[in-house]
Amino acid sequence: MSRIAKRCLVAGRVQGVFYRASTREQARALGIEGHALNLPDGRVEVLMVGTPEAVERLEAWLWEGPPGARVTEVICETVPVPEGVSGFRTGWGG
Predict the structure, then answer these.
(1) 3-class SS at 53?
(2) CATH number of the domain located at residue range(s) 4-79 in this protein
(3) 66 Cβ neighbours under 8 A, 6+ residues apart
(4) Segment 3-61, tens digit of pLDDT
(5) C-alpha 36, offset from chain centre
(6) C-alpha distances in angstroms, 50 versus 12, 31, 58?
(7) Catalytic residue annotation
(8) pTM for the whole thing?
(9) Where are the beta strands (DSSP E) in 28-94?
(10) Cα separations in angstroms, 45 against 1, 16, 80
(11) Cβ-Cβ contacts under 8 Å for 60 (sequence gap 6 or more)
(12) What are the residue boundaries of the structural domains of the chain, listed by start?
């Protein structure tokens, strides 16, 4: 099974609205590993590692987010699949 990785930066009202926790739930349901981290500038960084189909579905969901979120921008780039990624974590980055 082939896996890809994408790193996305999500802007808008995405902190304090359960964006990271909701992203973790979506990722786990899709079998995606990685993280969702709050950044000091108010954005959320999402690393997604999984099948191309699952990553594409989560990338589309990032534009929606949970009910309280107001996403204004999602910028994603394909990155090399990192070693040792296990599960999906949330926290602070930067």
Answers:
(1) helix
(2) 3.30.70.100
(3) 17, 18, 19, 21, 22
(4) 999 999 999 999 999 999 999 999 999 999 999 999 999 999 999 999 999 999 999 99
(5) 5
(6) 25, 7, 10
(7) 20, 38
(8) 0.94
(9) 33-38, 44-50, 70-79, 88-92
(10) 25, 14, 16
(11) none
(12) 4-79
Total Cβ atoms within 10 A of residue 94: 9
Q: At 18, list the tokens.
A: 């359960």
Q: State how far the Cα of 84 lies from the Cα of 44, in Å rounded to an integer.
A: 21
Instruction: Name residue 56's amino acid.
Output: E
Gap between the Cα atoms of 5 and 72, Å rounded: 22
| 30 contacts 70 by C-beta, under 8 angstroms | no
Cα 71 from Cα 12, distance rounded (Å): 5
Specify the pLDDT at position 93.
64
pLDDT in tens, 59-80: 999 999 999 999 999 999 999 9
